[in-house]
Give the backbone structure.
Amino acid sequence: MKHLFVILFALTACVSVSAQSAEKLYQVGKKLYDAKNYTAAVPKLKAAAEKGHKKAQYRLGRCYDKGYGVAENDAQAVQWYQKSAAQGHAKAQYQLGKAYKDGEGIGKDRVKAVSYFTKAAKQGNGDAQYQLGKAYMKGKGVTADEKMAKTWLKRAVKNEKDGRKIMEKIRKEAAEGDEDAKKMLGLIQE
C-alpha cells in the first residue's frame, strides 16, 4: 500500500510539473507574440500547445492563420483552433466558426459555423455575438429569426470589450450603403 501511495504521489507531481511547464512556456511565448517576435514565439507556443495548453493552441492557430513566424496554413490553423475550442476557449471557438463560415482550412459548413459562434457568444465573445446575430438575420446556417437576430446583435454592440468597435463597423457599412448593415442598425435601435 505504501508503495502504491509513493507511485501515485510521483505521478501527481509529474502532472503538476508538466502543467506548470506548459503554462511557463505559454507565458514566454505570449510575451514574444505580444512583442510581435513571432519567429521566437512559435516554438514556445508549440511546445505548450502540444502539452494541451488551450491558450497556446489558440495563439499557435493564429500564427498559422496569419502567417506569423510560420508559413500561412489555414488547415494547420484549424487543427489548433479545434484543439483549443474542444477545451472551451471562446476565441478559438469564434475562429473555428469563421473558418467554417468562410470555408478556410476546412470545408464550408454554415451549420457548424453557427454552432461554434453560439458557443463563443454564450461566453461573451462580442465578435461571435455579432456573427450569430447576422446568421439569424440572414438565415445562414440557422432558420432566420428576427427576434434572435436582434437579441444577439444588441448583445454584440453592448459587449464590454468589443461593442464599440462592432457598432462603428455597422454604422460605417450602413453609411456606405450596405443593406445588411442598415437592417442591423434598425434591429439594434428597435
Summary: DSSP finds ten helices and no strands in the chain. Residues 4-18 have pLDDT under 50 and may be disordered. The two ends are 69 Å apart (CA to CA).
